[in-house]
Amino acid sequence: MIEKFKVIDNYLMVKMPEEIDHHQSLYISENVDKYILGEQVNNVVFDFEGTKFMDSSGIGIILGRYKKIACFGGKVFAINADSRIRHLLMISGLHKIMEIMD
After folding, report:
1. Tens of pLDDT, residues 9-68
2. Which of 62, 50, 64, 69 has its CA nearest to residue 89?
3. pLDDT of residue 2
4. 60: buried, middle or exposed (CB in 10 Å: 19+, 13-18, 0-12)?
5. pLDDT for the residue 1
6. DSSP per residue, 14-57
7. Helices 22-38 and 56-70, packing angle to 10 deg
8. Residue 88 contacts by C-beta under 8 Å, 6 or more apart in sequence?
């Protein structure tokens, strides 16, 4: 089983699933929030390596976690986003609040 949440230094690494929709969003959001509030992480890194589909609930996950972590001065990052996911992050405006890394 792939570990979906892992703390490295003050970064929470979140391995996003293959499909991000409303079925996955509640589980991901609740767990990331627990780490933000309980593990004293300052940054959240969403790893889209295996993600092939994301709907608006994925945007909601990122936006909601950004609002929480920004209160503590933290940042949100996206890594390993393919061209479709990267395009979605750009057209939704999320690139303005998070760093999209290659």
Report:
1. 999 999 999 999 998 899 999 999 999 998 879 999 999 999 999 999 999 999 999 999
2. 62
3. 56
4. middle
5. 38
6. EE--SEESHHHHHHHHHHHHHHHHHS---EEEEE-TT--EE-HH
7. 10
8. 54, 58, 59
